[in-house]
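Lecture 7 notes: from sequence to structure.
We start with the chain below.
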Amino acid sequence: MDEADPARWYATNLVGVPAPLLGSPAFNAHPRRLRIAGARASSAGLFALLDQCGSADEARDVFGHYMELAFGLAKPAQRAAAPEGRRWRASYLKLLQGWGMDANGPAGAVLKGWVESRFGLVPTFHKAPLRRFPSPAWVAYLEEKATSRHHNNNVFQQLDLLFEFCQWMLWRFALLGPVPHVELWRGSTRCEEQVVAGSLRGRRCTVRLNNVVSFSLSRETAGCFGDWLLRVRVPRCKLLLVPGLLDTRTLQGESEVLALGGDYEVEARYEA
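Predicted structure tokens for the same chain:
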């Protein structure tokens, strides 16, 4: 097997679907709902409260308040003036903000590490292609993934709940419609090296995306990020963050959607 093939690095996961299948076009064509083992059970009270909510706005408030209480995410002025209250507390919101500023920074590495841990999908890129192991690129990724500034305060558990809340909202209130797939767009300048089947010039091909990847609901917005424009049908069960999910402006200015990556069949257009 080619050493650059991420299939060599697929790991075990917590969702009960083999990682090679989860990251394949076959799964995208016939998806099944994903649950992170133990995530809902460990916060049963949260989901019991959510089940009583009659609107998306009410559910957003319940989720935000629960996360503040469970992980001490209130603003510093709201905390007790004890030394412990002044410590940096990693949070899912700070992580998403960091991703929005630089997906190849420390926050991006932690998010990619969470996907690796929970879904078994190993990243293919972080500042540079992640191929031979060990390598300077892998060492840099592993160092940033473990940075204490973002990887503390049970941040993986926070992301578990974010994913489960996103899935709950998508099914309960149909944030992006009732269909099992969502049409999304992605602009890119480095598509050639991502093609694993077919060709860009043929308009339809299969590309290998990173283990967590940004898309846009808007074709026009996606076109600002590269000459190649990809149209992708992404299963709802692979979505982590969508506009309107949280009571925050994080990532919403670009109609950004975060989703699990892997191999996707896409329609490619060159719009230089």
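Points to note: Strands lie at 125-126, 128-129, 181-188, 195-198, 204-216, 228-235, 239-241, 256-270. Residues 59 and 99 are 24 Å apart (CA to CA).
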